[in-house]
Design brief:
By secondary structure, the protein is α+β, with helices and mostly antiparallel strands. 41% of the residues lie in helices and 19% in strands. The chain has eleven helices and ten strands. Helix 1 packs across helix 2, helix 4 crosses helix 5 and helix 8 packs across helix 11. It starts with 6 loop residues before the first strand and ends with a strand. The N terminus is likely disordered.
Amino acid sequence: MKKKLKGLMLPDAKAAQEVAFALKSESDGNAVILKTKDQRAIALAVELAGVEESCKIGNRCRVAPPPVLTPMIYVACLASYNSGILHGWWIDANQDPEDIKADIEEMLEDSPMDGAEEWAIHDFDNFGNLRISEHESLETVARWGQLLGENPNEENALSHYIRYAKDKGIEPNNEDFQQRYCGFWENSEQFALNSEEVEELYQYEQFQKNNPFWSQYINWEYLGRDLELTDTFYYSEASSGIYVFREF
């Protein structure tokens, strides 16, 4: 299926601004986001700016991140980049690695440079505290992207979980995250005192009913620390509290 034309790339931002102004459109770096389909007007505006368009822009080809919350990576064509041309796509990371690779190959086919093959990840968005390297494996990008996609608004918890899983030699996945994650707490004492997980393990409410006097003398601060020391739970420290994960 032919990609719908969204805009075009020009050699520099100044030229893009001139062409965008002439066409009553918008510029984004050295890209022009078109608001007209008049090909004659487009060709004339480019000619009057004294430049040549570098490439046409498909649905996902943008300089700035798209206004969506899904995890995205910006993959750049290195042949274009090394020639002073900005060409790349923002690609959805919440998909299988084979599909990400297919999007990258399609981006390279659209490159203004003949025979473009090399690429790199030059930016990323909506990955929470996670960091994507320039040459991160697509398997890792897809694994993290799918985890984040399945758990919206849990970016920070997932970044702590992924680091925890890496330390424990566990392959991060959504089922494991759901089984282990016990929430974000101010400190270990609050977790021990108020969490359903600790209540499930030690049945404090029943103990309180059976032993109303002795239940008043539990040292919750000590218990909270001991829960981690005995490998029952894992505390991942953050600036304002702890993320807690269940150990098995």
